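About this split. The held-out portion is used to measure sequence recovery: a designer receives only the structure tokens and must propose an amino acid at every position. Recovery is the fraction of positions where the proposal matches the reference. Here is one held-out target exactly as it appears in the evaluation file.
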């Protein structure tokens, strides 16, 4: 449910795009340390990947490479997000960027069998016009693989005001909305995000745990939390994986699922995240099953596609 395209470049695709990058350089520049000082420090590490995603060919290769990673990770459905306005350095228009990733997503789905949707992100430090341009792209590409709108980047560093107009537009046009919050800031930021951006899902939202009233509200309103454990350790939201609130959130009854966030910057995959939940909190098959079904319920897809995914998931859990 929560996966950034521009934070998920494998060594293979980096080499394909720039053969001068050796493994050591890849590890140093494209993979982050296990622990950053905070979200801003983590975000500074995304520039190398973004730099290699500035032409149509590069965007296509990175997207197709991600599908190969997802297939190897036994993912059956992914919502892949990125900010189109970060890919204009070599003269592409934002429309061409989205069109290219959209086409590559169709190609990736056809070749791997992994189903996917695309979420377009605005960023906290963007101006109002940039957020509007991004949300208009979601509307323009509605009916393609583009399924929703998000806001990412430095939650603690920038206010919400300049993005309210874009989220109002999204709501007026009945676009699917998720928003990063409750990561670099606490429960008050989640409240603010809910009130001003009207999402049905929150990216991370793990610091909602700091306010029992908020947890009650999330449960009552059916807001889904896209929880990314390793990412939260890396961005120093949580000190160690064993102290991650994922299990407490799950036991509280708030809808949630487990995601990878920044696959290669965090050097993780879904199997690794699931393994951590099993090791740290004793999660069993029934717990992963519940989260998978919650993810499907809150996915930005048609009821028909949800039914197909549910069947696949149920058959897989029954057979093992
Ligand atoms: N962009 C990529 N990863 C992110 C995260 N964890 N929070 C906010 N923006 C991001
Ligand atoms: Zn994220």
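Reference sequence for scoring:
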């Amino acid at each position: 449910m929560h996966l950034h395209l521009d934070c998920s470049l494998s060594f293979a695709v980096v080499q394909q795009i720039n053969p001068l990058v050796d493994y050591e350089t890849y590890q140093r520049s494209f993979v982050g340390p296990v622990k950053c000082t905070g979200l801003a420090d983590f975000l500074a590490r995304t520039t190398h990947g973004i730099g290699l995603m500035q032409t149509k060919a590069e965007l296509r290769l990175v997207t197709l490479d991600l599908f190969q990673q997802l297939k190897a990770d036994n993912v059956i459905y992914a919502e892949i997000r990125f900010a189109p306005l970060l890919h204009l350095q070599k003269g592409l228009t934002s429309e061409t960027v989205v069109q290219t990733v959209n086409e590559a997503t169709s190609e990736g789905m056809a070749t791997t069998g992994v189903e996917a949707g695309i979420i377009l992100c605005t960023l906290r430090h963007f101006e109002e016009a940039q957020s509007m341009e991004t949300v208009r792209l979601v509307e323009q590409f509605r009916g393609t693989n583009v399924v929703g709108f998000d806001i990412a980047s430095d939650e603690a560093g920038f206010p919400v005001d300049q993005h309210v107009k874009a989220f109002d537009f999204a709501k007026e046009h009945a676009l699917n909305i998720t928003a990063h919050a409750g990561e670099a800031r606490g429960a008050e930021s989640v409240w603010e995000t809910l009130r001003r951006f009207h999402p049905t899902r929150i990216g991370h939202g793990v610091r909602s745990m700091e306010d029992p009233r908020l947890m009650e509200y999330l449960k009552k309103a059916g807001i889904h939390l896209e929880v990314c454990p390793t990412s939260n350790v890396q961005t120093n939201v949580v000190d160690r994986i064993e102290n991650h609130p994922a299990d407490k959130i799950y036991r509280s009854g708030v809808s949630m699922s487990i995601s990878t966030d920044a696959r290669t910057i965090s050097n993780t995959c879904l199997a690794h995240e699931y393994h951590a939940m099993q090791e740290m909190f004793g999660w069993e098959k029934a717990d992963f099953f519940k989260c998978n079904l919650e993810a499907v319920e809150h996915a930005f897809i048609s009821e028909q596609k949800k039914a197909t995914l549910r069947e696949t998931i149920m058959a897989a859990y029954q057979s093992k």
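Annotator remark: The pocket of zinc ion (ligand 2) is lined by residues 2, 4, 152, 180, 203, 261 (CB under 6 Å).
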